[in-house]
Design goal:
With 300 residues, this protein is an alpha/beta fold. It has helices spanning 8-23, 51-69, 81-90, 100-109, 157-166, 174-177, 187-195, 206-215, 217-220, 246-257, 263-271, 284-294; strands at residues 37-42, 73-79, 95-98, 114-120, 128-133, 148-150, 180-182, 201-205, 223-228, 235-239, 276-278. It is built from twelve helices and eleven strands.
């Protein structure tokens, strides 16, 4: 039986819990004025999650933070990319959790935003693939007109953007171009739907496609990649210099980097399909610039 996956929000909260536990001392961590550390979560983390469920997901993290680390933290919904960036700049929030592409959008408007660490799964970038049956007579996305495309439930933001901006001809939208956008429970089911012709294409994250190929090589031979996305930067935890002290920023960074060295950290990361927190790559600024050009921020 194939197992489902955590929501995007659940992944980030669990990982932040492990990382913050490592970064905490027995003393209570707060900002310079004694207020709780406020962590803003970008709204797109909860694309497939209701507000009540979001609060349920947040509650265990807050309990973990306070009972196991002695830290006082507060998780808040941060709004969209620009709003979260503005709240970081204003000092309303100390740390912000962004998808990489959305951090690129925020940084275009607020260049002083500083990435602290990235969340990595095997490689320091993300990619999406458009998958079809190996024997399908489909040469381009135009051949998918009025077909069913599958986008797994809880897909990450780069998969959504790729579907919206690269998987339909110019001037079209997915809802108008495809007959239906199916939402299988996870990537495995989405690929199986393509094999069974229940869907004629599926947008699959690179890590999920690699895992499927290794676990089910015979079934993988029945599909092919029609096209793949550009490289997206990984999710990032960022802050605005001056609103979080260098000492606290370093404590968070060190704790996050050390998460992979503990049983709790490794277990949570394995469940969330994340290998580790890593320092910001040398080419991260270039990746942000490239992805912002390839996928401009939505116009208001």
């Amino acid at each position: 039986m194939r197992r489902g996956k955590w929501s995007q929000a659940g992944c980030f909260l669990g990982l932040l819990g492990a990382a913050l536990a490592l970064s905490a001392s027995s003393a209570r961590a707060a900002d310079e004025e004694g207020r709780p550390i406020r962590i803003g979560l970008i709204t797109s983390l909860f694309r497939d999650t209701s507000e009540p469920l979001m609060q349920v997901i947040m509650r265990p993290f807050k309990s973990l933070l306070e009972t196991q680390t002695g830290m006082t933290g507060q998780l808040v919904s941060g709004g969209d990319a620009l709003h979260l960036g503005q709240r970081l700049k204003a000092g309303e929030i100390h740390l912000g959790v962004f998808h990489g592409v959305e951090f690129a959008w925020a940084k275009e408007k607020i260049p002083q935003l500083k990435p602290l660490v990235i969340a990595v799964h095997q490689q320091p970038f993300l990619r999406a693939h458009l998958v079809v049956r190996a024997d399908a007579k489909i040469a381009s996305v135009r051949d998918l007109k009025d077909k069913v495309v599958a986008l797994p439930h809880m897909s990450r933001e780069h998969c959504w953007l790729y579907l919206e901006r690269r998987c339909v001809p110019a001037g079209n939208t997915p809802t108008k171009f495809f007959s239906r956008i199916a939402a299988p429970r996870d990537a495995n089911y989405a690929i199986d739907d393509v094999i069974d012709d229940a869907a004629q294409a599926a947008v699959i994250d690179d890590a999920d496609l690699t895992a499927y190929r290794k676990k089910y090589p015979d079934y993988f031979a029945k599909v092919k990649v029609l096209q793949q996305s550009e490289a997206f930067p990984c999710a990032v935890i960022a802050y605005y210099p001056g609103t979080l002290s260098d000492e606290l920023a370093e404590r968070f960074r060190s704790g996050m980097l050390a998460a992979k060295s503990t049983r709790q950290g490794r277990t949570m990361m394995q469940m969330c399909r994340i290998t580790s927190f890593e320092d910001i790559p040398a080419d991260f600024e270039r990746m942000l610039s490239n992805i912002a050009k390839a996928y401009p921020a939505p116009s208001k």
